[in-house]
Design a protein that fits this description.
The chain has 647 residues and is mostly helical. It contains 28 helices and no strands. Helix content is 77%, strand content 0%. The relative contact order is 0.05.
Length: 647
């Protein structure tokens, strides 16, 4: 570096130091102005380059210049006074305007963020409007297609209400495809929901169709629609639904029969009307079961495929076998349910029927029903045989008890009122010949002809024969032993009552015995007719006329017991009677006799067969008139014997 440059650099440093000292002596605004003024720096530099004389003359020079400048300013102010006034005004206005501008600028700066946000919002809204406009343009372009889609729910509802289920299923499938493709679109979801509501209504209508009268083709169509709807998880649920609906229809049909039933009859205890109503109810019940049972089983077998074919494709052996077992047992369980209801109804109503012919008619109808349902695998006939057998046995026992009660009540009334045997036991005035008349080993016609003189025995015989005539319509072989034993017990009860009544007459001695000899003969003849004619005759009618060629154990016990019970009353069998026994062995067999139409007791002989009350026997004044009336009224009592032998 040259010496000149070094000097200038040093001179510059000295000037800066001098300028700093000068400025440090000032305060306030002046110092800031001096420090920042380049003119001040230049003036200091120029001062350092002056000589001493120049520096000493500098203050005077500055004062002169100051006076000159001040004078010029005054002259200028005087000359340019309007200009200064205008400038001052402009300055004042500019100051005010700047203040207002500053305030407005501050407000503008504060409003700019909001304005910016509004601009953003406007931009967003404008974008949405643009998008909506584009959407509307697209909607307008595809208006026909959209109208078709939005009309699907209304069309679906119309199809369901009018029963066009096939078209409704097509619409449902179409909506399912739309949902798979455009499931995120709210309009498509709304259409799907509306269609689903119509589909639920269709499901209810289809199920209601199964609950009513429906033919096989319609049932197959309904089940096909239900399968397409996929409303059931398994096929077995659909089977259960079908059987439940058909069972509801069956129950409604059966409930209509109950209107014939007899709540009022049960309250009034009108057993005859109750039995008639029970007969009509069971008759119509069987008809409904035959018709609807055949229809349900046929429809079920036709609508649903074979279980093995249906579930053979199952990959899980355990699950597949369970499904197969459940599906295969569904129909069997339902059939068992129907049969349980039938058994309960039979047990409930058979006890009310007091007519064997009605029981026989119901059994025939039930067997026909079982044979009809047997074509579809429901032959239930063996299940009900024992029920009808028990009902028939109970009714038979009831009728036997009634006949026995009438016989025993007559004997007890005579015992209580001390009515002699001649007034009620026999119509004959002299029974001496009748003592040996009734002997065992005779034919049925011979035995029956000996009963016409004993009204009480004839009434009892006719009552039992009426029972036998009804029993011919329905005579279970299993009951032959039971009915025979029950009859034997009834015979013994009557014999015991007769023995109690007869003992005072048989045990009489001395003069009393002579006075009661006629009554003793009547009692012996009455007992002989009962034990040796009535009982064998009824036994032959039962075993030969109804249960021919049926093996029966202990056939002679009853005769031996009756003989031993009434041993003191019964007369001994004469030799002539024994001859008759030998001759009877050569007569026609019992099988031929029961089929003959020959009358055992003629109407003329039976005119006196009637139960005579003790009051009538005690009325001596009216005995002749009463005997004429009896001849006309008692003719019907022997009709039972005639009817049985004619049959």
């Amino acid at each position: 570096m040259s010496l000149e440059a070094i000097r200038q650099s040093q001179h510059q440093i000295d000037n800066d130091d001098l300028f700093s000292r000068l400025s440090s002596q000032m305060t306030g605004d002046k110092r800031k102005i001096i420090e920042t003024s380049q003119w001040a720096r230049d003036y200091v530099i120029s001062l350092t380059g002056m000589s001493l004389e120049q520096l000493q003359a500098q203050p005077q020079k500055l004062a002169q210049e100051d006076q000159t400048v001040e004078k010029e300013i005054k002259n200028l102010a005087f000359q340019e006074y309007p200009t200064f006034i205008h400038a001052e005004k402009c300055r004042s206005d500019i100051g005010d305007n700047f203040a207002q501008m500053e305030t407005q600028l501050e407000g503008l700066s504060q409003s700019l963020p909001d304005f910016e946000q509004l601009c953003r919002d406007f931009t967003a809204e404008a974008k949405l409007l643009t998008e909506e406009r584009e959407k509307n343009e697209k909607v307008l372009e595809n208006l026909d297609v959209l109208v078709d889609i939005f009309e699907i729910p209304q069309l679906m509802d119309t199809c369901v209400r009018n029963g066009y289920y096939s078209e409704a299923m097509d619409l449902t499938s179409h909506v399912s495809l739309l949902t798979m493709r455009y499931g995120n679109i709210p309009s498509i979801q709304d259409v799907r929901e509306k269609v689903q509501r119509s589909s639920d209504m269709m499901l209810i209508q289809l199920i209601s169709l199964l609950r009513g009268a429906i033919k096989l083709p319609a049932a197959m169509n309904v089940i096909g629609y239900l399968r397409q709807m996929n409303s059931f998880e398994t096929e077995n649920e659909l089977r259960l639904l079908f059987l439940k609906c058909r069972d509801d229809y069956l129950n409604r049909r059966l409930d209509n029969i109950k209107k014939i039933g007899s709540t009022e009859t049960e309250l009034t205890k009108d057993w005859q009307r109750l039995g008639r109503d029970s007969f009509e109810y069971i008759k119509q019940y069987i008809d409904v079961i035959r018709e609807q049972g055949f229809e349900i089983i046929t429809q079920y077998s036709s609508v649903f495929s074979d279980d093995a074919k249906l579930y053979s494709a199952s990959t899980d052996t355990k699950v597949g076998s369970t499904q197969l077992l459940t599906a295969g047992a569904t129909l069997a369980d339902y059939v068992a349910h129907i049969l349980e209801n039938m058994e309960r109804k039979m047990d409930e109503h058979l006890i009310n029927i007091k007519d064997i012919s009605q029981i026989s008619s119901l059994l025939t109808q039930l067997m026909y029903c079982g044979m009809s349902l047997g074509r579809v695998g429901l032959d239930f006939r063996p299940l009900f045989a024992i029920r009808f057998q028990n009902a028939l046995l109970k009714l038979t026992q009831t009728l036997i008890d009634e006949a026995k009660k009438t016989f025993i009540d007559t004997i007890n009334r005579a015992k209580t009122e001390n009515i002699p045997p001649s007034q009620w036991a026999s119509n004959k005035s002299n029974n001496k010949d009748a003592v040996d008349a009734a002997t065992p080993g005779q034919t049925r016609q011979q035995l029956a002809s000996q009963l016409i003189d004993y009204p009480v025995i004839a009434v009892f015989t006719n009552a039992i024969l009426s029972l036998f005539n009804e029993l011919r319509l329905l005579a279970p072989i299993a009951l032959v032993q039971l009915i025979t034993e029950y009859l034997d017990a009834a015979y013994l009860d009557i014999a015991q009552a007769l023995k109690e009544y007869s003992m005072p007459y048989i045990l009489a001695t001395g003069t009393e015995k002579d006075n009661l000899k006629s009554d003793q003969n009547v009692l012996r003849a009455f007992a002989s007719a009962y034990v040796r004619s009535c009982v064998p005759y009824l036994r032959q009618c039962l075993l030969d006329g109804i249960y021919a060629n049926v093996y029966l154990d202990d056939v002679s016990i009853t005769s031996e017991n009756l003989e031993s019970e009434l041993e003191e009353i019964l007369p001994s069998i004469s030799k002539g009677s024994l001859t008759k026994v030998a001759e009877s062995d050569h007569e026609a067999s019992a099988d031929k006799e029961i089929l003959s139409s020959e009358s055992v007791i003629s109407k003329e002989s039976a005119t006196q067969i009637k139960e005579i009350t003790p009051e009538e026997e005690l009325s001596e004044d009216n005995s002749k008139e009463q005997s004429k009336e009896d001849s006309n009224e008692e003719e019907g009592d022997a009709n039972g014997v005639d009817e049985f032998n004619k049959n």
